[in-house]
Amino acid sequence: MEVATTTAKYKTALVANRTAYIGNVEYDGIVYGDAIFKSPENKFDVFTKERMIEVSVNDGDSVVKLESYADRLLIFKKNKLELVNISQEIEFLEGIFVHKGVSNPAATCKTDFGIAWVNTQGCYLYDGERVNNLLEKKGRQIIKESDWFDHVTGSNAAGPKNPMIGYVSKKRQLIVVDDYTTIGTGRIFLYDMVTQSWVTSYHGTFLSGALTNFVTGWNGDL
């Protein structure tokens, strides 16, 4: 495949089914904040406008993070989640989930149960079939809305919080930190994927300062 040399900058990317996907793209100086570009198979550095995926065109929302699971592309925008089937050459939209977006790239993570993410509305898991609200269990709320709001939003005068999430694979646990910037208190909520239960911590469990995103090491430790 021969294409004219161009410049593509992007804020999030992943490789799935031997294809590279990039989101929130600046292409030849034009910003396509709500679009996804995909490469040809096994050509992970070739992107053209002809292979641009526009699920929701000019919706005023921008792509924050891309994830993939079970032949599905999860497009996380600030206000919603778009679920796209990528099992075939032609992708198609399977669902749009309003209020299921994320504020920052560190608010999603991959687990052996599916893709988990966090926002001010709750903590969720896509298991390949449906989006599950982890604040509920068997139709019953197990974390009060006020407690969750206080953890991930609070009444901080410095502005809204930016919660982030990580997965402890050896213990099958999710860690939700209240904020990765200096306005955070270092408090966490911990979710056990096996028992489907939550534990909360005191402030200062993590350093109350600027934090990086979670990283999984070579030995599987978070």
The SSE order reads EEEEEEEEEEEEEEHEEEE
| Mean of all residue-level pLDDT scores | 90
Helical content, roughly?
under 10%
Rg is: 18 Å
State the end-to-end CA separation. 40 Å
Unreliable residue stretches? none
Percent strand: 35-45%
| Largest sheet, spatial ordering of strands | 1-2-3-4
Instruction: Give the count of helical stretches.
Output: 1
Instruction: Give the overall shape.
Output: globular
| Secondary structure category | mainly beta
Task: Specify the biggest β-sheet.
Answer: 4 strands, antiparallel
Strand element count: 18
Oligomeric state of shown chains = single chain
Short description:
With 222 residues, the chain is mainly β. It has one helix at residues 145-152; strands at residues 8-16, 19-27, 30-38, 52-53, 63-69, 72-77, 80-85, 92-98, 108-111, 114-119, 122-126, 131-133, 136-137, 140-141, 164-168, 173-177, 188-192, 197-200.
Structure description:
The chain has 222 residues and is mainly beta. Helix content is 4%, strand content 43%. It has one helix and 18 strands. It has one helix at 145-152; strands at residues 8-16, 19-27, 30-38, 52-53, 63-69, 72-77, 80-85, 92-98, 108-111, 114-119, 122-126, 131-133, 136-137, 140-141, 164-168, 173-177, 188-192, 197-200. Strands 1-2-3-4 form a four-stranded antiparallel sheet, with no helix packed on it.
Secondary structure layout plus pairing:
Elements: E1 8-16, E2 19-27, E3 30-38, E4 52-53, E5 63-69, E6 72-77, E7 80-85, E8 92-98, E9 108-111, E10 114-119, E11 122-126, E12 131-133, E13 136-137, E14 140-141, H1 145-152, E15 164-168, E16 173-177, E17 188-192, E18 197-200
Antiparallel strand pairs: 1-2, 2-3, 3-4, 5-6, 6-7, 7-8, 9-10, 10-11, 11-12, 13-14, 15-16, 16-17, 17-18
